[in-house]
């Protein structure tokens, strides 16, 4: 089953009430297409979105900490209480050490939440797969936010990542991201062996996000 995860980053177009409007567009397109579309709004919008729209909601980051003296850190249980059912870990814009990635993953397992570990190349994909997250998302940093789709600019990084992850842990699903926005980008990603995509600006900053989402799923 194809999985689409929409990362809101800190774009104004997905901040505050707009986070709910975009989540509603995702729900509508998910219902009409039958494709799972999840959203990753900012922390402070998680509860707002989960209170309004019934789709899978991810945080953009989680720390591997528990209850206690951890001011300013992001606690998995609090994310779950806010309505999140999963989290990104190690996004290129929020890099972590391997040890911290593992701790964050453990905090998600403990709270029965889904995990997406982002990676920047084939070697880090293999390392992430060894930690058994639900998904690894390969995103070449140089293509993020460019509108140039990874599935066209660097298809080899997707096929090599899928192969590397499969060798280490067959259960891990590989997503890809960076520059994905069109139906042809998603179709190419699936043909290259990805289980779905992680994307942001092409939808969040589109004039009409719902129309952009309809295009994204149109060839699946
Ligand atoms: O970083 C990304 C998603 O997490 C990709 O961003 P863009 O879709 O804007 O290239």
TrEMBL record:
Keywords for this protein: Cytoplasm, Gluconeogenesis, Glycolysis, Isomerase
One GO-annotated biological process of the protein: gluconeogenesis
Enzyme class: isomerase
Source species, domain of life: Archaea
Compartments where located: Cytoplasm
Binding site residues for substrate: 7-9, 144, 179, 200-201
Pathways involved: Carbohydrate degradation; glycolysis; D-glyceraldehyde 3-phosphate from glycerone phosphate: step 1/1; Carbohydrate biosynthesis; gluconeogenesis
GO cellular component: cytoplasm
Coiled coil: none
Keyword Isomerase: yes
Keyword Isomerase: yes
Reactions listed under catalytic activity: D-glyceraldehyde 3-phosphate = dihydroxyacetone phosphate
Gene3D superfamilies to which the protein is assigned, alphabetical: Aldolase class I
Molecular function as annotated in GO: triose-phosphate isomerase activity
SUPFAM superfamilies cross-referenced by the UniProt entry: Triosephosphate isomerase (TIM)
Family assignment from sequence similarity: Belongs to the triosephosphate isomerase family.
NCBIfam families: PRK04302.1 (NF003302), tim (TIGR00419)
Entry function: Involved in the gluconeogenesis. Catalyzes stereospecifically the conversion of dihydroxyacetone phosphate (DHAP) to D-glyceraldehyde-3-phosphate (G3P).
Quaternary data: Homotetramer; dimer of dimers.
This protein's name: Triosephosphate isomerase
Gene for this chain: tpiA
């Amino acid at each position: 089953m194809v999985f689409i995860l929409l990362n809101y980053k800190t774009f104004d177009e997905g901040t505050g009430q707009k986070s709910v409007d975009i989540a509603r567009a995702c729900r509508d397109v998910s219902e009409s297409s039958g494709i799972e579309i999840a959203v990753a709004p900012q922390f402070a919008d998680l509860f707002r979105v989960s209170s309004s729209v019934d789709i899978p909601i991810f945080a953009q980051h989680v720390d591997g900490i528990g209850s206690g003296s951890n001011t300013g850190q992001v606690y998995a249980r609090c994310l779950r209480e806010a309505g999140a059912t999963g989290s990104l870990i190690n996004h290129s814009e929020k890099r972590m050490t391997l040890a911290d990635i593992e701790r964050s993953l453990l905090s998600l397992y403990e709270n029965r939440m889904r995990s997406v570990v982002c990676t920047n190349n084939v070697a880090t994909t293999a390392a992430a797969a060894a930690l058994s997250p639900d998904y690894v998302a390969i995103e070449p940093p140089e293509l993020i936010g460019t509108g140039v789709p990874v599935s066209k600019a660097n298809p080899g990084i997707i096929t090599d990542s899928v192969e590397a992850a499969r060798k280490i842990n067959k259960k891990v699903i590989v997503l890809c991201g960076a520059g994905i926005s069109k139906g042809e980008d998603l179709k190419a990603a699936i043909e290259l062996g990805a289980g779905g995509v992680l994307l942001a600006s092409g939808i969040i900053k589109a004039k009409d996000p719902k129309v952009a989402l309809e295009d994204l799923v149109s060839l699946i």
